[in-house]
């Protein structure tokens, strides 16, 4: 009888019994595409999160980790903003995470600042994102970070004339800008440029135009997935490799599922990025094992999954450093300067910009046991985001 009276009294006082238990939780609200044509990106992020929790458990520094997902269905900034607002106000999350697209990340940034909630960007790659809120930390990469080194690499190989073909949207133009800057500063020449439509994937006419220019190489950037697969196939059909033209790209072009779908058409392609699934480090082998256990064999992990896996590592390590304190400002301060082992190698969070510092690997697609596989053969160590310079 006394217990019943106490429960009624606390409820009337606005202190639900369940809320007392929630003090032992750290809630992570993930904003990403879970349905629609871009669902594969959200599925990779979710699998990366689940893989990390499979390896490291769901409790850290005395806090039970609870992950709550909200679907944006794609690059929809207003939907992302509403989802984040709901996570902050209704679900009382301690950390926002995910963000597969830049527009969504930019839309949510002011909310993170206002609520003083850390926002861990696990994919969106436009350089300006971390400058939009002091509560944003990025664990993926930036477009500049993988495009600029490829411009340097192309020049070092003695390539003189490069044609640029990128998708006609902000990330594509940013990729072109930073490749061009590095390549031309090293003495290279840009012989032509084309902005490819993002709503049509008929690349044949563009390929012929490029081939007629007879460049040494082409630098390309497209949204990952079907556009890249079709680009590879059009490249092969028009005989650009047979004409001695090299294909160079930044992150995303050597994902296992993309290569599997493109087949022989992808062989010989060169790409710069932060994660190569074929690397044999113990950290990557543990990640691959956990990914398979949580996601099965239908998809293979790519860089989005690793960005999410490392995002969880940053959250866990920050919580350890604060001794379980979930105060947003303290968590972000604890994330700054972290150095962690990762499936990609060692990563660090730049204490000044809160952006990830990556090794950028140069990979070439080769046939291994009848399957196209990206193999590392060169690298650039400790690459910061030069997009803010």
UniProtKB/TrEMBL annotation:
Q: Where is the signal peptide, in residue numbers?
A: 1-20
Top-rank taxon of the source lineage equals: Bacteria
Protein's UniProt keywords contain Manganese? no
Q: What UniProt keywords apply to this chain's record, in alphabetical order?
A: Signal
Instruction: Respond yes or no to whether keyword Endoplasmic reticulum is given for this record.
Output: no
Concerning InterPro entries, the annotation shows:
BCAA_transport (IPR051010), Leu-bd (IPR028081), Peripla_BP_I (IPR028082)
Leucine-binding protein domain span: 26-366
Q: Which family does it belong to?
A: Belongs to the leucine-binding protein family.
Can you say what this protein is called? Answer: ABC transporter substrate-binding protein
Q: Can you name the source organism? A: Pusillimonas minor
């Amino acid at each position: 009888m006394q217990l019943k009276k106490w429960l009624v009294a606390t409820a009337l006082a606005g202190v639900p019994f369940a809320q007392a238990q929630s003090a032992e939780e750290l809630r992570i609200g993930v904003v990403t595409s879970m349905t629609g044509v871009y669902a594969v990106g959200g599925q990779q992020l979710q699998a990366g999160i689940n893989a990390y929790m499979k390896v490291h458990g769901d409790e850290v520094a005395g806090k039970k980790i609870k992950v709550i997902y909200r679907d944006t269905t794609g690059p929809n900034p207003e939907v992302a903003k509403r989802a984040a607002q709901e996570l902050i106000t209704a679900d009382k999350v301690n950390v926002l995470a995910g963000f597969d697209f830049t527009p969504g990340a930019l839309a949510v940034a002011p909310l993170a600042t206002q609520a003083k909630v850390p926002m861990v960007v696990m994919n969106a790659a436009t350089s300006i994102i971390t400058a939009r809120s002091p509560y944003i930390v990025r664990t993926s990469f930036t477009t500049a970070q993988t495009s600029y080194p490829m411009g340097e690499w192309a020049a070092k190989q003695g390539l003189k004339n490069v044609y640029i073909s990128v998708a006609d949207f902000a990330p594509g133009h940013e990729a072109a800008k930073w490749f061009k800057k590095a390549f031309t500063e090293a003495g290279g020449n840009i012989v032509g440029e084309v902005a490819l439509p993002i709503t049509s994937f008929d690349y044949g006419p563009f390929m012929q135009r490029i081939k007629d220019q007879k460049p040494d190489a082409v630098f390309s950037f497209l949204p990952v997935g079907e556009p890249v697969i079709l680009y590879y196939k059009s490249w092969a059909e028009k005989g650009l490799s047979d004409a001695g033209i090299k294909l160079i790209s930044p992150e995303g072009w050597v994902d296992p599922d993309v290569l599997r779908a493109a087949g022989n058409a992808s062989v010989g392609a060169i790409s710069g990025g932060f994660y190569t699934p074929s690397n044999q480090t113990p950290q990557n082998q543990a990640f691959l094992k956990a990914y398979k256990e949580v996601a099965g064999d239908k998809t293979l992990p790519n860089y989005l999954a690793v960005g999410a896996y490392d995002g969880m590592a940053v959250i866990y390590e920050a919580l350890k450093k604060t001794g379980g304190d979930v105060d947003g400002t303290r968590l972000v301060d604890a994330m700054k300067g972290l150095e962690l082992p990762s499936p990609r190698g060692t990563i660090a969070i730049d204490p000044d910009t809160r952006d990830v510092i990556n090794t950028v690997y140069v990979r070439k697609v080769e046939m291994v046991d009848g399957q196209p596989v990206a193999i590392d053969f060169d690298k650039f160590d400790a690459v910061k985001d030069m997009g803010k310079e």
